[in-house]
């Protein structure tokens, strides 16, 4: 029998299951945010880059190296650091060095654990009724924020801002998170799966399609995504949607802002850098994306996966362009703190190798509550209605794994309650049982700002 792991991360390259905590590193990667408003010329020259490499950042990585040394002295032969860095790097990281861990192949794990029987039982065990669902911001406010962002682009140098929302779900009982995670993995066998227990007892769980950075020796890889379309059930329609996406000038432009920013960050760090001329299509079960696989060879072999990842993060795929100004715009129009949403999650070892995925297509789960996150890149040509629909489509990854109809998030598709009871009865009964449940508005983080601040 498996003990509940402290951390689980899986990609096509490696799986890591970690147990116990030797030492935590809960400092911010960057201690302060730069608040000075740069003039236009300076802003252009700095682009997204300068704000992301500071002395504070070096201090953080020095602390990590020291922690690795202590772990070695304490008898941990090959220590690794695992966890997540929030969207805002001035907020505390959630990293730790585990007492023990095992590395495994995801392909083998899926083969062994996800036979048809366990897929079905995973689906059933993880399915729940949704008693209440609440989007922060709601549809009208999200669209208003998109319009605000577009108006702002016309008056500033900001070219892109990623706006997001959190869907807060109250379920009719606690989720079986083991079964849920297995179901998520089975439905989305590719990409980056993660499960990270957090200090307050909640867990960050997700299946992200996006790699921020993998380092193997001197080689680094990144696979940014930007520009999205919803998958279609009909194969012919699905193909047409993907072709339309690859020809969409709005999406190609949105994508190019991400790639140029990552190129600008990586170029000075790399002896070689290969960035394909044009994006290619990739898909998840729910979405089509424009994708650019980037490969580089580091100049400095001591630069770690986490150092390079923190230089890139947050890319314009999750923040905007230019980064610092887009971040301020997000803080102005987004009515919640992202916390770990839109951050990075992964691991690295003391040699500097490791893999960091972008924390999207994910949620934070506490007992019978789930908070799911989705965002969309906004540029001048964005249409508020289709950006809202894009966030709905992105939420589908987690909603499907929960067995919830994404169009009607208050109706669970799979019913595990006893037969002979109507959905209404079940829902009412559950609502009564849930009478003691924590008030949404009073609940902790990350939905903690009160409405859109203009
Ligand atoms: C913000 C999300 O996705 C990001 C935004 C994308 C876009 O705007 O097209 C595509 C992939 C991700 O980089 C999300 O899934 O929540």
UniProtKB/TrEMBL annotation:
Q: Which Pfam families match?
A: Chorismate_bind
Q: Which organism is it from?
A: Microbulbifer elongatus
Q: Does the keyword DNA-binding apply?
A: no
According to the record, the residues making up region (Disordered) are 224-245, 406-454
Output the superkingdom of the source species.
Bacteria
User: What is the protein named?
Assistant: isochorismate synthase
Q: What is its EC number?
A: 5.4.4.2
What PANTHER family does the database record attribute to this sequence? Answer: ISOCHORISMATE SYNTHASE ENTC
């Amino acid at each position: 029998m498996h003990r509940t792991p402290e951390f689980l991360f899986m990609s096509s390259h490696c799986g890591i299951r970690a147990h116990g905590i030797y030492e935590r590193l809960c400092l911010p990667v960057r201690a302060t945010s730069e608040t000075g408003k740069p003039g236009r010329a300076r802003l252009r020259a700095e682009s997204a880059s300068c704000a992301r490499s500071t002395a504070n950042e070096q201090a953080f990585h020095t602390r990590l190296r020291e922690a690795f040394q202590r772990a070695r002295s304490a008898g941990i032969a090959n220590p690794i650091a695992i966890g997540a860095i929030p969207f805002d790097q001035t907020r505390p990281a959630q990293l730790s060095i585990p007492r023990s861990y095992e590395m495994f192949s995801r392909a083998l794990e899926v083969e062994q654990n996800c036979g048809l029987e366990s897929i079905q039982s995973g689906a059933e065990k993880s399915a729940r009724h949704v008693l209440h669902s609440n989007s922060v911001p709601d549809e009208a406010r999200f669209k208003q924020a998109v319009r605000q962002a577009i108006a702002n682009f016309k008056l500033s140098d900001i070219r892109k801002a990623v706006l997001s929302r959190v869907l807060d779900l109250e379920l009719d009982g606690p989720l079986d998170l083991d079964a849920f995670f297995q179901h998520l993995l089975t439905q989305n066998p590719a990409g980056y799966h993660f499960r990270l227990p957090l200090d307050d007892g909640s867990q960050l769980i997700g299946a992200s399609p996006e790699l921020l950075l993998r380092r193997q020796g001197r080689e680094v890889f990144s696979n940014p995504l930007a520009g999205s379309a919803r998958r279609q059930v009909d194969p012919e329609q699905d193909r047409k949607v993907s072709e339309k996406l690859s020809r969409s000038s709005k999406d190609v432009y949105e994508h190019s802002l991400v790639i140029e920013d990552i190129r600008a960050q990586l170029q000075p760090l790399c002896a070689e850098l290969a960035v394909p001329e044009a994006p290619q299509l990739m898909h998840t079960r729910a979405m089509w994306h424009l994708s650019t696989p980037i490969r580089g060879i580091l100049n400095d072999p001591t630069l770690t996966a986490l150092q390079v990842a923190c230089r890139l993060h947050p890319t314009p795929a999750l923040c905007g362009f230019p980064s610092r100004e887009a971040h301020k715009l997000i803080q102005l129009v987004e009515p919640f703190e992202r916390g770990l949403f839109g951050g990075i999650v992964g691991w690295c070892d003391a040699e500097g190798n490791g893999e960091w995925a972008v924390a999207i297509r994910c949620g934070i789960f506490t007992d019978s509550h789930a908070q799911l996150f989705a965002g969309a890149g906004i540029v001048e040509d964005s249409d508020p209605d289709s950006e809202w629909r894009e966030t709905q489509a992105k939420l589908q990854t987690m909603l499907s794994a929960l067995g919830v109809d994404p169009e009607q998030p208050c109706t669970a598709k799979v019913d595990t309650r006893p037969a002979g009871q109507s959905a209404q009865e079940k829902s009412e009964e559950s609502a009564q049982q849930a009478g003691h449940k924590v008030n949404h508005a009073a609940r902790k983080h990350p939905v903690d700002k009160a409405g859109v601040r203009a």
